[in-house]
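Minutes, methods subgroup
Present: GH (chair), OT, SY

1. OT presented the first of two proteins processed in the latest run. Sequence and structure tokens recorded below as shown on screen.
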Amino acid sequence: MDSPSDSQLSIGPPENAPVARQDSKNEHYVAPEVKGIYHLSRKSRRAAKNSLQKYQGWEQPPENRPPYHEYVHDLVQGGWDVLKPLDEYMSVDIEDQELVISILDITDSSRHERRPDTYDVLALKKILDEGKPSNVKVRFYMVEQRGNLAASVMGALGSSLDLDPRFFQSGLHGNKHVLPPSERHRAPFTSISFGVPKLSTSLKTDAEKFKVTFYVKPDDAVGQMSTLQEGIQVHPSAGDGWTGILLFTSHTKINLSSANLVPPPSFTSPRPQPKPQTTKSFRELYLEAFSHLDLQTVTASPFYAISPLLRLNCFCWGRVISSIRDEDRRINGVSDTTVGHAEEIKKSLSLVQRGGSFGWKGDDVQSFKETKNALEEDFKHLVQETELLWETREKMASNRRQKAERRWSALTNTFTYVFAPITIISGVYGMNVSEISGSNSNPNIWQFFVAVVVLNVVVMLALALSNWVHIITKHGRTAGAKEAFNFAVGKDGR
């Protein structure tokens, strides 16, 4: 992978970037003392319970629907019933007091420029109204919000960038509920399911899951749109550039540096500058990763642009699988854990094998092929490790069941050995026979034993005859007496 030139700008926030609003600061996200690069902070994992709130008075009458919501509603009325949940969701908006929107531009001179972060929808609309500058080849809108995206943000992005509403619908319920496979594999958007160890619970094997959804909007597909007071203004296209929209559905932070996603420099190379280790959200890690990417390839290939997210996805799922394996070894058994890990990892592998989406450009770029092959190898190895872990857990669970069954069988046999003689003695002495009652009118005890023997012989003959008939009808041959009686005495499972 080529390293960026020295003339490229720093990926960090601009010097004049505004400070986040103090009234909406979440104290749960204060970075704790660093204890290791893979250490996950409990505090940073806990989102405030009341950070998601309904907008007061948002429930609007039908005639006052925002333009994009009206568009979705018209599609539902026109027969696209699959969008009905999105229509209902947009009727009651949810405000996230920790909404963060980062905007990153890749210019035609292969430089990256980060705009100040925004924290509300009005600021986002203003930026969307300005449009993309003519010297910008690629622009990324990175929206970080806990849970489902607010309807107001959907409306701002959807109306200004002319986005497919199924993109937002898939963020609510998943792609499989919206698109068939043939369309899902060629759609301009896709999603990556993440799993990270959930340290806010007592179980070390619990995993917190969330999604990152990515939409690629080519500039040559449709002009950039901005909603102005006097109407819709169409800006000129930027040629072969594109716009990327990323939706991060979690504020989860992890103590990790993006440098772990790329090989370290050689011994003879200049040593990197020391950097303080702090917890970062996945949006911040992705922004940091652009310092290690070839920006010319980013412009040419959307899949290469999201490759840091896929590497991070593979790394995080690997930590989850390792946590489960270590806990199983510690307890010498099968630990309690969440399920569905293998399925999500296989989905990521399938995404890598498609190169993101069959509808994206850049599959002829050399860096695209190298990155795809490397990621495919990593995810295949992770799938093998996951399947091996689950096979081992299944064998261990089977052994535990067999041991439990043997213990129960031994306990049952113990009770049988204790109570069988008592049952036989009480049965004999409870018989109304002449030897016990003293009356000659009652039968003798030897008659009881003769009846038991005769009955057993009759049952054995019936079972032997049944086995003899079964062999004739099934195998077309006559069984011998020994073979027929094997089933009667329990030596043939048939």
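2. SY then presented the second protein from the same run.
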Amino acid sequence: MAEPAPTTNEPTIEADPEVNRLLATLANHLYHVLTALSSSLPTTPTLPWAMTFRVPPNVKFEVDDCEEPWTFREKFDLIHIRYLAAAIADWPKLMSQAFEFTKPGGYSEFQDYDIVFYSEDGTLTDDRELSSDTMQTTSNGMTVPIQKWITTFLQAARDFGRDPCPGPRLGGLMRDAGFQNVQEHKYKVPIGPWPKDKHLKTIGAWNLVQIENGLEGFTLRLFTQTLGWKSEEVHVLLANVRKDLRNPKIHAQFDFYVAYGQKPADAA
């Protein structure tokens, strides 16, 4: 799939490696907290090693593009892939390659988001309960900057040819690739410490830190180079989005999906 050419003369925006490492650490910690606090989380083949920060001495790291043809010389007992929302152009191809390089009888697991923000009590779009300093009327009638931001972000990612919400599709994609015994699990992840439940409050607090630290990196390139916004316009919107993220009267959340399955023992 050809990527659309930039529609603006804004300078190219490069990712900050230090910020990327911080976000990876926060994302990992968020999943560890979710795992530790939710009794309903599945016990999958990944969890024993996923719950530790120790790296075995026989592990080596390779940096590669997972969308290019995989060139590994061996197949794996376990393939674990996560956090690729708005990053993959061809999900069936990725699933097919994961299936090919899983050993017969082995497992693959995918974890990813449906990053459509929503509330179950109307606080994300209902302006009656919000403070006046977060109001911003938009062309489509929405009054909450965070809703304007996520709606625009989702559209920009799709315009760029990347699915920002792969989570709900993971199980079906795995089955289509040939995996069997596919299990799917969905979890609500709050944004901010607004839940009354102490476990969800902890998860929401860590999720807020993760989103706030990545907000600019998530947004700038897509909005300026795909949608043609000026950097100044993006920063003004993000300043209001940060207010919404920290507003305890806005009970925003999104969904997180885990899907895992087994390659048939008689598969090649």
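Chair's summary of item 2: DSSP finds seven helices and four strands in the chain.
Next meeting: continue with the remaining queue.
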